[in-house]
């Protein structure tokens, strides 16, 4: 059975409160797919609808092309890894991994074969006889993965499984999870509020806000062509500047103060924007670079208010002369060395950018 997941016009209400607005989406078999969004946006609710812990108020879920209405949690081709892992602390690693198989009546020899194979997959060979309490956080994480895989799910649902780990280990486990996913070919549905996690591991990401999917795209597209201001601000860092529309030509927009930008993907060609209309321009700190005050193209001028040395780069905070807004500018190693003399508080600087990198 293949592991695609399809949501057809799924809605979830809790009393009067709508936690999930009408959502339709197909996750391909073998895809590493993440739901990314702030706390309370409905990620866990969506995952619980796929796993069967929640029955949607409206709409249909199909897994592997089969309708899931009326199919209980334990009959679905899914397994779940929770934030707290929910391992049995007093049992051994073997017993934890084999638990689901034992419940299904698989004999001991066959069970052990499966757990040995999975321990090798998660790089924990030889740890089978250990008790869970003897393991480190990262090792427990791997046992939880092995246990979930033991029942041969077509879809693995992961609810912020790395959030309890320290930064180093979390980064290591990201790579590990991605490798395991690739090796097994199982569909992974991952939920997180951490954009770094979502961007590094996923084939595609759905960015959510307040029960609504804002954009579904591969990580690079999300970053380069955010469909909404919410996505621009949530995925990576961005400056939000207020401006008034002067005129537009296709997607290219001219704003007051000689500022240029491009209409966001979601806005598209059909949007009616009248001259003089107030809009927001999003431009990322790393897309700004120092230019001379009379340079061609869009220019933003301001006084440096703070200089933060961040190792590989320098972050400037600049107060824009025209609007008083704060502009954050990230300069890479080469550029910050070239402009070393100007990188002091009180300096007036002008920054330019490629209009294609600015989203209106
Ligand atoms: P977090 O990252 O904090 O877990 P989340 O994005 O997973 O957040 P959900 O747990 O899906 O968010 O919750 C979405 C919204 O639905 C929240 O406002 C929450 O309070 C509400 N909610 C979730 N479950 C229930 C429930 N059983 N009854 C009532 N409201 C609920």
TrEMBL record:
<dbReference type="InterPro" id="IPR003439">
    <property type="entry name" value="ABC_transporter-like_ATP-bd"/>
</dbReference>
<feature type="domain" description="ABC transporter">
    <location>
        <begin position="5"/>
        <end position="235"/>
    </location>
</feature>
<dbReference type="InterPro" id="IPR008995">
    <property type="entry name" value="Mo/tungstate-bd_C_term_dom"/>
</dbReference>
<keyword id="KW-0813">Transport</keyword>
<dbReference type="GO" id="GO:0005524">
    <property type="term" value="F:ATP binding"/>
</dbReference>
<keyword id="KW-0547">Nucleotide-binding</keyword>
<dbReference type="GO" id="GO:0043190">
    <property type="term" value="C:ATP-binding cassette (ABC) transporter complex"/>
</dbReference>
<dbReference type="InterPro" id="IPR003593">
    <property type="entry name" value="AAA+_ATPase"/>
</dbReference>
<protein>
    <submittedName>
        <fullName>ABC transporter ATP-binding protein</fullName>
    </submittedName>
</protein>
<dbReference type="InterPro" id="IPR027417">
    <property type="entry name" value="P-loop_NTPase"/>
</dbReference>
<dbReference type="GO" id="GO:0016887">
    <property type="term" value="F:ATP hydrolysis activity"/>
</dbReference>
<dbReference type="GO" id="GO:0015697">
    <property type="term" value="P:quaternary ammonium group transport"/>
</dbReference>
<keyword id="KW-0067">ATP-binding</keyword>
<dbReference type="GO" id="GO:0022857">
    <property type="term" value="F:transmembrane transporter activity"/>
</dbReference>
<dbReference type="InterPro" id="IPR013611">
    <property type="entry name" value="Transp-assoc_OB_typ2"/>
</dbReference>
<dbReference type="InterPro" id="IPR017871">
    <property type="entry name" value="ABC_transporter-like_CS"/>
</dbReference>
<dbReference type="Pfam" id="PF00005">
    <property type="entry name" value="ABC_tran"/>
</dbReference>
<dbReference type="InterPro" id="IPR050093">
    <property type="entry name" value="ABC_SmlMolc_Importer"/>
</dbReference>
<dbReference type="Pfam" id="PF08402">
    <property type="entry name" value="TOBE_2"/>
</dbReference>
């Amino acid at each position: 059975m293949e592991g695609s997941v399809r949501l057809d016009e799924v809605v979830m209400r809790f009393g009067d409160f709508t936690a999930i607005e009408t959502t339709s989406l197909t996750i391909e078999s073998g895809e590493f797919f993440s739901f990314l969004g702030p706390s309370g946006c409905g990620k866990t609710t969506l995952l619980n609808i796929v796993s069967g812990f929640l029955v949607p108020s409206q709409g249909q879920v199909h897994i592997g092309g089969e309708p899931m209405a009326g199919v209980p949690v334990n009959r679905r081709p899914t397994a779940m890894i929770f934030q707290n892992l929910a391992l049995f602390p007093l049992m051994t690693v073997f017993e934890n991994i084999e638990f689901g198989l034992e419940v299904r009546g698989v004999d001991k020899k066959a069970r052990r074969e499966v757990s040995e194979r999975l321990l090798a997959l998660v790089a924990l060979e030889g740890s089978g006889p250990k008790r869970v309490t003897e393991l480190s956080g990262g090792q427990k994480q791997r046992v939880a993965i092995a246990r979930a895989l033991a029942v041969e799910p077509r879809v693995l649902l992961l609810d912020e499984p790395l959030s309890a780990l320290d930064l180093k280990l979390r980064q290591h486990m990201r790579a590990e999870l991605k490798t395991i996913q690739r090796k097994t070919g199982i569909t992974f549905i991952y939920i997180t509020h951490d954009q770094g996690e979502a961007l590094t591991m996923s084939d595609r990401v759905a960015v959510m806000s307040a029960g609504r999917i804002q954009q579904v795209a591969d990580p690079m597209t999300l970053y380069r062509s955010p469909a909404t201001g919410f996505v621009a601000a949530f995925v990576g860092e961005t400056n939000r500047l207020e401006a008034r529309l002067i005129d537009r030509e296709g997607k290219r927009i001219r704003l007051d103060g000689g500022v240029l930008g491009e209409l966001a993907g979601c806005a598209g060609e059909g949007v009616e924007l009248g001259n003089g209309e107030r809009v927001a321009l999003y431009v990322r700190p790393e897309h700004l670079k120092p230019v001379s005050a009379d340079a061609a193209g869009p220019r933003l001028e301001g006084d440096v208010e703070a200089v933060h040395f961040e190792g590989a780069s320098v972050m400037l905070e600049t107060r824009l002369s025209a609007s008083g807004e704060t502009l954050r500018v990230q300069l890479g190693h080469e550029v910050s060395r070239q402009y070393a003399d100007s990188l002091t508080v009180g300096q007036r600087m002008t920054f330019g950018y490629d209009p294609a990198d600015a989203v209106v």
